[in-house]
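User: Sequence for OLC1v1010286C1 below. Tokens please.
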Amino acid sequence: MADEAPIRFGIVGCAEIARKLARAITLASSCTVHAIASRSIEKAEQFAGKTNLAETAVKVYGSYDELLDDPDVDAVYMPLPTSLHLKWAVLAAEKKKHLLLEKPTALDVVELDKILKACEDNGVQFMDASMWYHHPRTAKMKELLSDPHIFGQIKVIHTSASFLAGPEFLENDIRVKPDLDALGALGDVGWYCVGSILWAMDLKLPTTVTAVPKVARNPAGVIMSCSATLNWEEETLATFYCSFLADYTQDITVCASKGTLRVQDFVLPYEGTTAAFSFTTGAKFVDLHIGWNVKPQEVQVINEPPQEVLMVEEFARLVKNIKSSNCKPESKWPQKSRMTQLVLDAVKQSIDLGFKPVHL
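Assistant: Structure tokens for OLC1v1010286C1:
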């Protein structure tokens, strides 16, 4: 049957992260890597060798245009530098290719809106490649956070995403180049921080965003680390820290009126097939304040396959529904990306305005 045919992916760009997605596409039962494109045929062939695709029937192209013109490509995964997203993502949509786009999705929401409009006009699915949304742990955490008897109203959210980059990264990586990825740490790891805050708040935008007046930049002016606070009218507060200059962190703490949830590895779980988080509810101090009446409960969530495979399979499922059942693209994924981009823009604007509040 036609709907049993795998979704044929083209990979546009041979960034290091693309090796992980190539593996995920290969492991996914509903997908196959059909083509790879780079700016040179030599680089595309090297990538095919690294990913063990050289001996398969994968097509190798020396330009992005050639891949997008391939009529057998159903969808593209695009890990290009952010400054190239607008041109190539719009062109992919115009060529009727469903789009799995690396984050940050664009340099600003104006660019992203053009990408999303192209996807909508051409009836193709859009999704950004934030893998952690697709982990079953994420669904389990949301289930508990949504229980008013366990957590109540969210009051404070703290999140951080950071890693200590080495000299080679700080000198040569595209994420430190103003002409390639001008958002730096804010766009790279900050995307996860903002996304996790909005996830906890059911995609409700904050009323104000204010950057903290402590920003590190490289000599080219690209943000290496920054922090911000987000406020909601119902007195909920969120803070985040993102950095290329600090130890590895991928933390979320959500403190509500009745309980608190904590996870230390929300972006990339410590293990590929299991992940944990902890929570407390109804916590109090015991007599004489010499202890607590409860200890954190740890929840283990088993996942097989890994989250990147689950993301690819969900994306492929949506593409199949569009192709075989005339379904419309799922709107929640572009909505998540757009809201995240809006908040990122507000943080950057606050920094540029001398750390003044930006109202959304």
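Residues 159 and 240 are 5 Å apart (CA to CA).
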